[in-house]
Design a protein that fits this description.
Number of helices: 0
Shape: globular
Strand order of the largest sheet: 6-3-10
Helix content: under 10%
Length: 74
């Protein structure tokens, strides 16, 4: 039995470390006045232990955690 967590985007595609994803919705970043726009390409994602979240860096914000329901695989 494997303990591997499968992380999927909003379309059901499996995500892996290092994948690129695109935002499907404008997202406000908590604790800042930044909004990351729909269509923004986020490269080199990192999986967390949570199947509903990924970690990434954008030009505006470093160390960001995004919910997979707002992403699609690029």
């Amino acid at each position: 039995m494997t303990d591997e967590i499968i992380v999927r985007d909003s379309n059901g595609n499996q995500l892996k470390d290092g994948d690129s994803v695109t935002l499907i919705k404008d997202l406000k970043v908590k604790g800042t006045s930044e909004t990351i726009k729909r269509g923004t390409l986020v490269k080199n994602i990192r999986l967390t232990g949570n199947p509903g979240e990924i970690e990434c860096n954008t030009k505006q914000v470093k160390g960001l955690v995004l919910k997979t329901e707002f992403l699609k695989k690029a």
